[in-house]
Every structure is written in C-alpha cells, then in structure tokens.
Amino acid sequence: MDARAYLSNLLAFSGILLALGFLLYFGAGDRWFSFYGAASLVLVGVLFAGWLIFKRYGTLGLRRWPAMLVLLLIATACVVQIAFWYMFFSSGPQGLGLAAGRSMVYPMIEPWIPLAGGLSAVAVVWLLGRGLYDNEQAT
C-alpha cells in the first residue's frame, strides 16, 4: 500500500468512525453510549487501524508485532469493558457481585485511567503516523 492510499484510507476511516459515533450516540442514546459506545467505537477503530498498519508496515518493511501488541492491549481493554456491562445487565441479581467488585477495584485504578488512555492515544497516533513515512521518497 503506497502512502497516498494509506492516507486516503486513514482519512476515510476517520470520517466513517466519526459518523458511526454520532449514529450510535444519537441513535442508541447517551446512556447506552456511556456503557458500550466508546468501547465499541474504539474496538472497531483498533480493528481497522490494525489492518491499515499491517498492510502499510509490510510495504515499508517495518516490524508489525509492536503495533499489533499495542492494538491488542487496547482491544482487550475494550472487550473487558463491553463484557463487564453485558454481564452486569444480563445476569439479573447476580450482577450485584460484579457491581461490588467494581466498586472495590475502581477507586484504585481510577487515577490511572486518564494516563492509560493518553498513552494509548499517543501510541496509536505514533503508529499511524509512522506509516506516513515513505522510504522511496527519502532516498
């Protein structure tokens, strides 16, 4: 995949993801979006970004495993978020155990959530930006 195709795919993907976000937010409601929406969008984003990075890094001859590791960690966090709320709402009275566990763990991890999100965002921007570099134009 050349740099122009990579950039056009990246821009198209960003627009589609933004439109999907608006559709989910206004279509499903802000309550649903607060539980599932952001994680769902990031999961879709990770899958498409992984495909773009995999194709582009192959063209550039770059190692793909660091990018896939970062994206796998982000996807895992999204799946955990979606699975937690799914189990909470679908398990009836047993969901109280999940709520109790969350109330014990959340205060310990809450200060670190913005840092994890920021580092994840920086890593993804760096990985996607690295794909913009074209070896053939540098020589």
Characterize the main sheet. none
Question: What is the CA-atom radius of gyration, in angstroms?
Answer: 18 Å
Tally of strands: 0
Backbone shape: elongated
Q: Extract low-pLDDT stretches.
A: none
Taken in chain order, the helices and strands follow as HHHHHH
How far the N terminus sits from the C terminus, by CA atoms, comes to 18 Å
* Number of self-contained structural domains: 1
Q: Helix content range of the residues, please?
A: over 70%
Number of helices: 6
Name the average pLDDT.
89
Structure characterization notes:
The protein has one domain (3-133). By secondary structure, the chain is an all-alpha fold. It has helices spanning 3-28, 30-60, 65-90, 95-109, 113-130, 135-138. The mean pLDDT is 89. The chain contains 6 helices and no strands. It starts with a helix and ends with a helix.
